[in-house]
């Protein structure tokens, strides 16, 4: 019988075997178990929940639990992930961040809304908020000393090569000027404590400065993020004229390799171990008293194995005093850095992160950074 629920469900499962359908159309997660029967795409469970937020456009059902009519199966067969992506993603700018299943819900929801609800990638004019090269607006910024969030005016100017913010709405002079060449932005909802929280970093006198911002409107926040990526993309195209787009994209913004608490001791190894929040950002290992501090208490440069950097499990036997029991020693050409983790799992995870960095050959510009660290007072 053509409309038999079991045979229709079976046909839906078979459609997962068609090219493109075996991964979520929106985040790339393997083995999607849901589908939008109005758009014609197969999606994962968490993206299906985001499709429910645009119910006027997308209606979803479970492939395993819900009944499917023959006409719905025929539509899914005629559409499918590759065809629908070809339609709704035809004009995605190279710099636009396309989230994966590892990314926060805000990025994924706004990607889904941008594609299907706002149809931003069918019309270049709709991309102006992040592609115009200039953006200004107000964001809630965390105060450096009191932790209070206050409304601050931000301006991103590609022409000037800066992102700046002003302490007062009518201020003539900016409170901070961040050069696009060193700016990074990464969503940090858990750390900041708000679903729309963005951490922006930049180099000030070759040290990393953090600022934490958010906006109640998810689209506004993701537009800022993609505007920063666009400005970085155009800066890097000029700075590295021979580089391919695929070479430049990983440099637009980056998530941290790892973050979390460890204990550390000082350069003489005679001081007590102190608990600190650590962030591994590319080759910079920074430590903070509090995860939301504006400045790091210190930074360690992690070079490559060819340049005599190694990471070892454990601490030298001479180390005395109370500390967490799972130690890590980082050996650099000049000295050893000693850390301690609370659990063996943390220790293994940090060692793997350090090893990833140490195994990568150093780029020419990283030698200049290493030289700065060596001569830092």
TrEMBL record:
**Chain ranges passing through the membrane:** none
Q: Which residues form the PH domain?
A: 132-233, 255-359
Gene Ontology terms, MF aspect: GTPase activator activity; phosphatidylinositol bisphosphate binding; phosphatidylinositol-3,4,5-trisphosphate binding; zinc ion binding
Which Gene3D superfamilies does the UniProt record give? Arf GTPase activating protein (1.10.220.150), Pleckstrin-homology domain (PH domain)/Phosphotyrosine-binding domain (PTB) (2.30.29.30)
Judging by the UniProt lineage, the source's domain of life is: Eukaryota
Provide this UniProt record's keywords sorted from A to Z.
Answer: Cytoplasm, GTPase activation, Metal-binding, Repeat, Zinc, Zinc-finger
Where in or outside the cell?
A: Cytoplasm
Keyword Zinc-finger present in the record's keywords: the answer is yes
**UniProt keyword annotation of Membrane present:** no
The segments labelled Disordered in the record are: 1-20
Question: What's any one GO cellular component for it?
Answer: cytoplasm
Enumerate the spans annotated as Arf-GAP domain.
Answer: 9-131
Q: Which residues form a coiled coil?
A: none
SMART domains in alphabetical order: ArfGap, PH
Q: What protein name is recorded for this chain?
A: Arf-GAP with dual PH domain-containing protein 1-like
Report which gene this protein is encoded by: LOC115047927
């Amino acid at each position: 019988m053509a409309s038999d629920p079991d045979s229709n469900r079976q046909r839906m499962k078979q459609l997962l075997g068609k090219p493109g359908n075996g991964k979520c159309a929106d985040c790339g997660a393997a083995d999607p178990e849901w589908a939008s029967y109005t758009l014609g795409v197969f999606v994962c469970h968490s993206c299906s929940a985001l499709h429910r937020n645009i119910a006027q456009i997308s209606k979803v059902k479970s492939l395993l639990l819900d009944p499917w009519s023959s006409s719905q199966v025929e539509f899914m067969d005629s559409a499918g992930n590759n065809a629908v992506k070809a339609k709704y993603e035809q004009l995605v700018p190279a710099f636009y961040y396309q989230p994966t299943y590892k990314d926060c819900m805000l990025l994924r929801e706004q990607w889904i809304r941008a594609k299907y609800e706002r149809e931003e990638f069918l019309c270049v004019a709709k991309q102006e908020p992040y592609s115009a090269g200039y953006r200004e607006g107000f964001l809630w910024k965390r105060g450096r000393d009191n932790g209070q969030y206050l409304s601050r005016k931000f301006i991103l100017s590609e022409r000037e090569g800066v992102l700046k913010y002003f302490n007062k709405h009518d201020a003539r002079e900016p409170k901070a000027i961040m050069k696009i060449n060193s700016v990074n932005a990464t969503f940090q909802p858990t750390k900041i404590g708000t679903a729309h929280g963005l951490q922006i970093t930049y180099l000030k006198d070759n040290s990393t400065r953090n600022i934490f911002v958010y906006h109640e409107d998810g689209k506004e926040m993701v537009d800022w993020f993609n505007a920063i990526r666009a400005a970085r993309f155009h800066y890097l195209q000029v700075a590295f004229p021979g580089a391919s787009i695929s070479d430049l994209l990983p440099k637009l913004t980056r998530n941290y390799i790892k973050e979390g608490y460890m204990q550390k001791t000082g350069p003489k190894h005679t001081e007590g171990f102190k608990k600190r929040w650590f962030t591994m950002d590319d080759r910079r290992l920074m430590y903070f008293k509090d995860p939301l501090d504006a400045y790091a208490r210190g930074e360690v440069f992690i070079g490559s194995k060819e340049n005599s950097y190694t990471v070892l499990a454990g601490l030298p036997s001479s180390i005395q005093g109370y500390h967490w029991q799972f130690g890590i020693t980082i050996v650099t050409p000049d000295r050893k850095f000693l850390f301690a983790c609370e659990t063996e799992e943390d220790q293994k995870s940090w060692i793997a992160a350090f090893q990833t960095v140490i195994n990568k050959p150093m780029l020419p510009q990283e030698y200049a950074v290493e030289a700065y660290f060596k001569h830092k007072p």
